């Protein structure tokens, strides 16, 4: 009888261990929201790294026509996910995930050299609070969209990428609507969900000190990486490691 009870107890313990392991690895969905001036294709290396580690990665190709449009585009992708999802945003994408992260399927947020706004803040209000330098941003002739001068793209956005890659990013950049940068945030998802922040220490697009201040305010777990604003492309392995760690912690 004693041996029988011991066997049952051991089986129960083993089963509980398996259940805990399954729960810890439960977050397999990663949804990435790219920033302004570069589309989701520049996340390819980081995506491939995450997929090799067993994650299901989807990249939102938001239109950058307005913050509302970009949040809606992100929610459409979130609705396609089965199970809990970790939401990742780069640069302006941080504005988007702060709103879209209120989706009930989102269990955590990862900010990659990103804006991490509080309620009532806009990208413009944050960027002007700690200027990062002299990004050569220009307006389209109709005055509605913004883009980065291709000749300055490498130095301002992707100084640590090979020239061929930065040149391609400059030629394929996605223009952003001015109103998207002026739109104010509602209730930030980081107030109710865990967050992580990657600080690009050589960032010329967002002041690294601003990135640090926003992360501290949100109580985010911080990782600093010596890289340009395009840290996701120049240091894809390190960015993937942070995302994997975040997925593991939210799974527990």
Automatic annotation (TrEMBL):
PANTHER family: AB HYDROLASE-1 DOMAIN-CONTAINING PROTEIN-RELATED (PTHR37017), ESTERASE_LIPASE_THIOESTERASE DOMAIN-CONTAINING PROTEIN (PTHR37017:SF11). SUPFAM superfamilies: alpha/beta-Hydrolases. Residues 1-21 form the signal peptide. This is Hydrolase protein. Keywords: Hydrolase, Signal. Residues 30-242 form the AB hydrolase-1 domain. The keyword Hydrolase applies. Pfam families: Abhydrolase_6. Coiled coil: none annotated. It comes from the Bacteria. GO terms for molecular function: hydrolase activity. The keyword Signal applies.
